[in-house]
Amino acid sequence: MTDKTPEMNFVIQRIYVKDASFEAPHAPQIFKEEWKPEVNVDLQTKTNSLEEGIHEVVLHLTVTVKMGEKTAFLVETQQAGIFTIKGFPQDQTNQALGAMCPTILYPYARETISDLVTRGGFPQLLLAPVNFDALYVQHQKQEQDKTKSK
Length: 150
Description:
The chain is an alpha+beta fold. It has a single domain (9-142), classed as Bacterial Protein-export protein SecB (Roll). The protein has helices at 90-119, 132-149; strands at 9-23, 38-51, 54-67, 70-86. Strands 1-4-3-2 form a four-stranded antiparallel β-sheet. Helix 1 (90-119) crosses helix 2 (132-149). The protein is elongated, with a radius of gyration of 19 Å.
């Protein structure tokens, strides 16, 4: 009797910056002000199926830093990765795409953001860690609640 269960396979094929931008609309005047920033972070993920078992995951991170009413800087990055995910049940594949892959990409996105900010002449910006597993569970619950309320 042979076991015909497909072999589970998770491989990081490539990690890359898909897009990045930095704007400092009030430079150089903003550098004269006392540095008391208000930081707003927006985080989104998107998944594209490239072919059977191969997926692109894009982590889109936007950080807006304001000083009062003025935007000190706005920095965005789309950190992406190509992942092979084969042989897993659909729920585990979904969790890998929604939590595990963004967890892998996030440190690269943090580094890109930090590098762009310091190159823009501002103090280093260290973004807090993100629990993508918790965000994934929260998103799944929201989707279930939407389905139940229909």
